Amino acid sequence: MRFSGALTALVTPFRHNVVDEDAFRVLIERQISEGIHGLVPCGTTGESATLSHEEHERVIEICIDQVKGRVPVLAGAGSNNTSEAVRLTCFAQKAGADGALLITPYYNKPTQEGLYRHYKAIAEAVDLPLVPYNVPGRTGCNLLPPTVSRLARDFPNIVGIKEATGDIPQCSRLLAACPKKFIVLSGDDLTALPLMALGGKGIISVTSNVTPGLVAEMCNALAAGDLQKAARLHLSLFALHDVMFAETNPIPAKTALALMGLISDEMRLPLCPMDEANKNKLIDVLHAQGMLD
Fold it and tell me: Which residues, 6 or more positions from 256, have their beta carbon under 8 angstroms from its beta carbon?
């Protein structure tokens, strides 16, 4: 299965408001060396909303170049403008991505029929594997299981979904409605284990920016049928999952990586540095996890 296990929603490091290409390559190598199963550049965690079109394309190119086929690259290519999403997805295919992650159109608040037609337009423009991304808390719309099932059955290149509602009953309906080969990936670290226990195939993780090895190990345990080990790893990571969302993602993830000396502590407005009280909580958790000296 091309997209399964632990895939990291990569941060985009900046230095002096420019994409830090060297730091990004170091992050990618660290991910692969610790056993990650796939990488996702230019998603929400990658601050895609504040990247220029040129930066967006360059970040995808760097990731594909650095990975060199060792793990799948699922490139963020979504937009609330369907024609723009088509253009970005065509670029991802031309650049050599293994698939494209496509967020539901934000702000527009389309109907279910509008969502279907949005993904239909993209699916008909490329032959790249496509993974819609459902995160109503950010977009204001919810891609419901009947619509996902319709897309999965009508378009063979719509191969899965990143489901980030954190709503386990909706995830259950989704798994029941879609073909068995359809890939359901959790987009929520806090509820990834129960979704995978129900039949989900993995996680597009924020926490794995910080600790890719442990998130990958949890997914490996589930794939091997060792629910007890997976649950133990999930619980050991739970405090880190919690603090990764103490403020808007990717503020905590970037702060953690900066504390670990891997990137500069820089994000783009309207995101801003982490509140000191939350940063101290993050430091405590990182110490407890053995991530800081």
Answer: 209, 210, 244, 282, 286, 291
3-state secondary structure of 124: helix
39-76 tens-digit pLDDT: 999 999 999 999 999 999 999 999 999 999 999 999 99
Q: Which positions are catalytic? A: 133, 162
Per-residue pLDDT at 76:
97
Phi/psi of residue 160, nearest 5 degrees = -170, -175
Q: Give the separation between CA 119 and CA 160, rounded to whole angstroms.
A: 12
Residue 292 DSSP SS3: coil
Q: Find the DSSP H helices in the chain.
A: 21-33, 53-67, 82-95, 112-125, 136-139, 145-154, 168-177, 192-198, 212-223, 227-244, 251-259, 276-288
Task: Count other Cβ atoms within 10 Å, centred on residue 254.
Answer: 26
In this prediction the pTM is 0.95
Q: Percent of the chain beyond pLDDT 70?
A: 100
List pLDDT tens digits, range 221-265.
999 999 999 999 999 999 999 999 999 999 999 999 999 999 999
Domains of the chain: residue spans and CATH: 5-224 (3.20.20.70)
- Residue 293 has a pLDDT of 76
Q: In whole angstroms, what is the distance from residue 150 CA to residue 56 CA?
A: 30
C-alpha angle 17-262-274 in degrees, rounded to nearest 5: 65
Helix H or strand E segment including 134: strand 130-134
Low-confidence ranges of the chain (pLDDT < 70): 1
Q: What is the DSSP letter of 130?
A: E
Please state the residue numbers annotated as binding site for pyruvate: 45, 204
